[in-house]
User: What shape does this take?
Amino acid sequence: MKHITRRGALAGASALSVAGATARAQTQGKYPDRTIRLIIPWAAGGPADAGFRILGPSVSKQLGQQIVIENKAGASGIMGALALQDAKPDGYMISQMHMSVLRQPLLNKSLTYHPINDLTYILQITGFVMGVVVRADAPWKTLPELLAYAKANPGKLNWGTLGIGSTQHLAMERVGMEQGLTWTHAPYRGTADTLRALLGGEIDFASEASGWAPMVQAGQLRLLAVFTAQRAKRFPDVPTVRELGFPVVVESPGGVVGPKGMDAATVAVLANAFKVAAQEPEHLRFLESMDQPLILLDGPAYRDAMARTYEEERELLRRLNLLPQ
Assistant: This one.
């Protein structure tokens, strides 16, 4: 029989103690072990809010912890990004990401966060279909016809978007700059206001997100082109701007971000859960109803894409004289 010495017993007890402590640390450190807060920087009831309220229960089920959605509207949609600047990078506070988070620090010198360096990119999920619409009785049947008219009649056309520096505004300005066009941009408070102005004859055309879809289907508006890389599913006969020869693709991607410095393993857990949820039938039906494409990108690729976009936006805003002095 093998005899256990006192020294051996103490060594064994010490090893067991270390193993137990390690096991307890691993158990205590397992992510997630409590509720996760997801900030939606818009009022409740909008498309972004609705989409994430579909994703939430699926993500909660996968993670075994509740996802609680908090709406923080105002400040051009950057309240989530601002909240993340003071949050611990432990994965228990995350936020919806969208283009205003990227663009507002360029437009507003009082914002001190950097949209690339001061956030952790978790997953890109979707984008938005934006297009150029005119009234159904307008003389222009195609985007090239509209642009040819604008070129022949400098300064005569008025057009609208939901605001100066918005994605819709910058998309159309890129087309105009490519063609050397002169026209008048009219900013409105939102897509609904822009489309009412178009129907009322205040403006000649609008560059807007797919809030125009019901009016196009009802025959009130004519969709000339879309800015996405692919044609919109509900409007397969409408060409993309790129198809028409203008090198402009705008999908206004959005996804999920967290505070700077998140652990890669935590990011992976969240990304995988949201990726699965995004591809479930209920969410895909929602995207289709909103004309939103599913554009999944993992965190590093999402960050790289936004870094490139950030520099492109800076240059475009400079050319439009929209950067603050």
